[in-house]
Amino acid sequence: MMDMPIDVTMVCPFCGKEHFVTVNFDDCLAWNNGALVHKTFPYLSATEREQLISGLCPDCQKNFFREM
Questions:
Q1: Minimal CA–CA distance to 51: which of 13, 5, 25?
Q2: What is the rounded distance in angstroms from the CA atom of residue 57 to the CA atom of residue 18?
Q3: C-beta of residue 51 within 8 angstroms of C-beta of residue 44
Q4: Staple 14 to which of 33, 55, 60, 65, CB 3.0 to 4.6 Å?
Q5: Residue 26 DSSP class
Q6: Where are the beta strands (DSSP E) in the chain?
């Protein structure tokens, strides 16, 4: 396969800011096929993994999780 880095781009559902996370292509395919995010992307921070899961940008994650 293609073990090359790609940027996964998303728009934050709260603030509308566009942001991205760089992952390996093969890992992205595995995640899209149901692999668990924390096992598929151990090289990403918890913040980056949350970006992939929820689409929340780092700033909105700080605000959202601080309120909880």
A1: 13
A2: 8
A3: no
A4: 60
A5: H
A6: 5-11, 18-24
State the sign of the Cα–Cα–Cα–Cα dihedral 7, 8, 9, 11.
negative
The amino acid occupying position 51 is Q
CA 51, distance to chain mean position in Å, is 4
Tell me if 20 sits within 8 A of 10, measured CB to CB.
Answer: yes
**Which stretches of the chain drop beneath a pLDDT of 50?**
none
Q: Retrieve residue 27's tokens.
A: 């890992």
Amino acid, single-letter form, for residue 17: K
Q: Which residues of 17-30 are buried (b: 16+ CB within 10 A; e: fewer)?
A: eebebebbeebbeb
